[in-house]
Amino acid sequence: MNDDIVSVCLRRSSTATPWGFNMQGGIDLGSCLYIQKVKPNGIAYKAGVRPGDAILQICRCPAQYLSHQNAKMEIIRSGNELDLVLQRNVVTQGVVSLQEARSSVEEEPSPFRGYQNPTLQSRSFKIIQKCLNYEDSYED
């Protein structure tokens, strides 16, 4: 069956070695956490991780309510032993677009520039002016 739930154990000898996958999504982005890309011949590739797999657990931590940042922190905390529970083929590659998650705001220029008083000075400017004794130069 293509939608199987699988457990994947990733192991590496050093934290300098990348896991070999890119993760997308998170509750803060309005989608499940999923594997976006897998580096050919990387650790994740050799363990059977595939693009489009949804991440259900990261080291026994349910990923359902994790933000993207919290998921990254769980992966970092795992050190050199990362255990993932994945569900196959949940996200169809090419269908999920970052453009869909973004919204655009279009503003029209306004002729209103706010209240402007040429004789109005900020309190900070007045204090500086007083300290520098420039008050007399403006009284001419």
TrEMBL record:
Instruction: List UniProt keywords, sorted A-Z.
Output: Cytoplasm, LIM domain, Metal-binding, Zinc
Compartment annotation = Cytoplasm
What name does UniProt use for this protein? PDZ domain-containing protein
Is DNA-binding given among the entry's keywords?
Answer: no
The Gene Ontology biological process annotation of the record reads:
actin cytoskeleton organization; muscle structure development
Q: What are the GO cellular component annotations?
A: adherens junction; cytoplasm; filamentous actin; stress fiber
Main localization category: cytoplasm
